[in-house]
Specification:
heterodimer; A: alpha+beta; OB fold (Dihydrolipoamide Acetyltransferase, E2P); six-stranded mixed sheet; elongated; B: 303 residues; mainly alpha
């Protein structure tokens, strides 16, 4: 098992003006669970396929362990890939599917049997070893695909949206199973998904990609608390962060952000004021997560606004409240026991710590990190 | 499995209902059609089992009133020559000598070509495929004379003239079998998910291993149909054999049978007996390949 390092990795398909992957540098430590997330077409799968050796490298370097693998054939890279489609060999039994790689490597029969039996036990597949993939359920096929990767004990596991073909309940189950597997094997895993919940729940660190570029790498908490830019802020968290463009107003007692419609106002901390001054902008994008909006009254610092309730989505423990504040739509998560009805006008607030500020053009976070 | 079957039965029942037919009526209709189709073959079989002397005096259907006339006599007579040149057994062997290599070669080369056309990473694959499809419309007859000339030219240059030899016939048949073979195989292989090959590649399989351990087993139904078609075409071929092997000592069954019709004294008993022998081999081929027609070979591969 070993680390995986990408240096300025770039992919440009012939006949495509845009780069599918643009100078992405990323270090995945030995034993780390790294998630690549991003919307479809962001280059995450391309990156994974390049690490696997299924796509050629336009420029840049891929290292697995301390070997540069750019020009190695997939089979020489000592990696396993779990496909979104599972890609099981339909004419082989589960046992043969799982042992295929070992048989190709001429591993002694007894060792193969031991490895497969072991993996089957971990994955609860023991009684299905003689079946063919066509006779298995979706979840079982998924586990066979995982098993095929496990038996080879590779340097790194690559997974390409392995849960996207499962139904919601099974997905949650398998998610936990993969996390357990990671702890048990201590293996380096690179996991591609478009679902930020999967990334947040499983990953040690997350790399957020957009339009072929790496937006931010960090632990789930870092990405949630201190997003580097507006894209990451909007991508991580569900429902996603509210964004409002606000005017900067300098007054004697300090700087504030205002939006006349909806009486929206933010009294800024000194650090924030300084950052805005440095950026030299007269408007900024305010970001605030739905779960950080409440109706506590806060004197002084933080965000304050009034809004009308438009839609209430009841979720049991809490409610997603869709609000309109002077023509600006926002979402807030509130306790389900709060006595709200559609049409209510509320005064809402968020603490200064929960506020994110982004540059109006570049989208870069203006908050000190 | 049983679920699948019951769904199919449900569909069938609905179809019958819509047509307003009961199962019994359908079975009777199908039976009549089947008998109608089989009459020529049955008559051939009956004629081959009647004594030669009866041929001119009564029709084959008299066997229904006088079954005692049936005899193995014709078979013992034509087999009595053994494997002597010009005999039916010698022709049978010659037919096999031509048909089996052709079938094997066409199946193998078509599969390899189709693999490259579908999964290869070279430019112009689609163009080449179109050319191959275009070749399917070239009638075999127009190529006979050019190929004979070409063979002769080969003989002049290399001292090896395939004309008049069994390899010469085999080469010709393979060449004309390939366009359809590649067409069939290519269209089948496009249905195999690319992920399967990539999975194999990552697990350590080279191109050749991927071909024969992953693609070939999945392509068996297509290969079986191709083999059956190819076998029957070549088995029944008279024209090519006549052009390339006419006047040879060893000739295939088609020429053997054809030779019997030429003489004024109609050797119908030999023709019918030989024809039954000739039908027998493709039947064996068909039934032995039939088990490869498995529906849903790709079930469970992806998703």
């Amino acid at each position: 098992m070993s680390s995986v390092t990408l240096r300025e990795l770039t992919k440009q398909y012939v006949g495509n003006a845009a780069r599918s992957l643009d100078a992405v540098s990323l270090e995945v430590a030995h034993g780390e669970f790294m998630c690549l997330v991003g919307p479809s077409g962001c280059g995450k799968t391309t990156a994974l396929r390049m690490i696997a050796g299924l796509e050629s490298v336009t420029s840049g370097v891929i290292e697995i362990g301390d070997r540069v693998v750019n020009d190695l054939a997939p089979r020489d890279r000592d990696i396993a890939l779990v496909f979104q489609s599972y890609a099981l060999y339909p004419h082989m039994t589960v046992f043969d599917n799982m042992s295929f790689g070992l048989r190709l490597r001429k591993v002694p029969k007894d060792d193969i049997k031991a490895a497969v039996t072991d993996a089957a036990r971990i994955l609860d597949l023991e009684e299905y070893l003689d079946r063919k993939p066509g006779q298995l359920s979706g979840g079982q096929r998924q586990r066979v695909a995982l098993g095929r990767a496990i038996v080879r004990n590779p340097a790194a596991f690559l997974m390409d949206e392995p849960l996207s073909n499962l139904d919601a309940k099974l997905r949650v189950q398998t998610r936990a199973e993969i996390a357990r597997l990671h702890q048990r094997l201590g293996a380096t895993m690179i996991y591609v998904t478009h679902d930020q919940v999967e990334a947040m729940t499983m990953a040690d660190r997350i790399a957020v990609l957009n339009l072929g570029q790496l937006e931010q790498v960090g632990s789930p908490r870092e990405l949630y608390d201190r997003p580097a830019n507006q894209f990451v802020a909007g991508f991580i968290g569900s429902p996603s962060m509210n964004f409002v463009t606000m005017h900067v107003e300098s007054r004697d007692e300090g700087m504030r952000l205002v939006r006349v419609q909806g009486d929206m106002e933010v009294v800024l901390e000194n650090g924030e004021s300084a950052a805005i001054r440095r950026a030299g902008v007269d408007s900024v994008v305010l970001g605030v997560r739905p779960e950080h909006i409440d109706h506590r009254s806060r004197e002084g610092r933080g965000l304050q606004f009034s809004a009308t309730v438009e839609v209430i989505e009841f979720l049991g423990n809490d409610e997603h409240v869709h609000l309109s504040s002077g023509g600006q739509n926002l979402v807030a998560i509130v306790d389900a026991r709060a006595p709200l009805t559609v049409g209510d006008t509320l005064t809402l607030s968020a603490s200064s710590a929960a506020i994110h500020l982004f540059h109006p053009e570049s989208g870069v976070s203006l908050k000190e990190r | 499995m049983s679920q699948v079957r019951s769904v199919q039965e449900g569909k069938r029942a609905r179809l019958l209902k819509r047509l307003g037919l009961s199962r019994a009526v359908v079975n009777v209709i199908l039976g009549v059609v089947a008998v109608f189709w089989l009459v020529p073959t049955i008559s051939l079989l009956v004629i081959s089992l009647r004594p030669e002397s009866q041929f001119g005096t009564s029709g084959w259907w008299s066997v229904f009133t006088a079954p005692s006339q049936l005899t193995w006599g014709n078979y013992t007579t034509i087999f009595s020559q053994g494997f002597a040149a010009g005999g039916v057994l010698d022709s049978l062997v010659t037919s096999l000598e031509i048909t089996m290599p052709v079938t094997l070669l066409v199946a193998l080369i078509s599969s390899l070509a189709a693999y490259s056309l579908v999964f290869g990473a070279w430019r112009g694959r689609d163009g080449i495929f179109l050319v191959i499809v275009g070749l399917m419309v070239v009638p075999l007859q127009v190529a006979l004379i050019p190929v004979v000339q070409f063979y002769r030219e080969l003989g002049n240059i290399f001292g090896l003239n395939p004309y008049g030899t069994i390899p010469g016939v085999i080469i010709f048949h393979v060449a004309f079998g390939l366009p359809f073979g590649i067409f069939l195989m290519r269209n089948f292989l496009t249905g195999i998910p690319r992920d399967l090959l990539e999975a194999g590649r990552i697990e350590g399989a080279g191109e050749w291993k991927i071909f024969y351990q992953i693609v070939l087993p999945l392509a068996l139904p297509a290969i079986a149909s191709l083999a059956i078609f190819q076998f029957i075409w070549v088995w029944n071929d008279l024209l090519v054999a006549l052009v390339f092997l006419g006047g040879n000592v060893h000739t295939p069954l088609t020429i053997f049978l054809y030779d019997q019709t030429r003489s004024l004294a109609a050797n119908y008993w030999i023709i019918s007996t030989g024809a039954v022998v000739s039908i027998f081999v493709p039947l064996i081929v068909f039934f032995s390949f039939q088990r490869y027609f498995v529906r849903g070979v790709l079930a469970g591969a992806v998703k």
